Write a sequence for this structure.
């Protein structure tokens, strides 16, 4: 981000041309320049501070990644447990239906023998 330098001389000249006394115009130009310098200094960051902040963000991301991995593992385990239970229930239901069909077939076969 580039920023033009504040031209105190041009600023003071404009003030003088507008009727401001020379000493007052120069003082106002210096105050304005100081204000701009303060604004720039407070918004700039050094390379070392930036590196520290990046390192902190990377560390936070690693922590988040670790927590997410643990949570995903827990969900995976829970799903495996739940799926095993569902398989067991499905197996029992299929077994029950199979025995019911076999019983029905035996009953139908017996009925054919009685009436056939």
């Amino acid at each position: 981000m580039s920023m033009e330098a504040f031209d105190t001389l041009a600023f003071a000249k404009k003030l003088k041309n507008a009727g401001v006394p020379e000493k007052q115009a120069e003082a106002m130009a210096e105050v304005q320049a100081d204000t701009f310098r303060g604004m720039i200094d407070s918004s700039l960051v050094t390379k070392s501070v930036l590196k520290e902040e990046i390192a902190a963000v990377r560390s936070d991301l690693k922590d988040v990644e670790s927590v997410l991995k643990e949570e995903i593992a827990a969900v995976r385990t829970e799903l495996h447990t739940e799926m095993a239970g569902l398989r067991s229930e499905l197996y029992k239901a299929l077994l029950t239906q199979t025995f019911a069909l076999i019983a029905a077939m035996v009953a139908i076969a017996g009925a054919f023998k009685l009436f056939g």
Notes: The chain has a mean pLDDT of 90. DSSP finds three helices and no strands in the chain. The longest helix spans residues 47-115. The radius of gyration is 42 Å.
